[in-house]
Design a protein that fits this description.
Helix content: 40-55%
Structural class: mainly alpha
Oligomer: single chain
Order of helices and strands: HHH
Number of strands: 0
Distance between the termini: 35 Å
Largest sheet: none
Length: 73
Amino acid sequence: IVPAPESAHAIKCAIDQAVACREAGEAKTIVFNLSGHGHFDLAAYDAYLAGNMQDVPLSEEKLQEAMASLPEV
């Protein structure tokens, strides 16, 4: 199973919660949603595993432009 990147975050959180329960000696039911299939990201996985990922620099100007477009929360 190749989870979509969004689901990978849920899997990581579920693992973190399970470790916390183990360390605290607690037994809890932990539920997470596995969705997506990662189909569109397989080329990125291949590049990562082959050591061919390219770091694309982001200029400070572009970063500030992107940050300015975010709504205030």
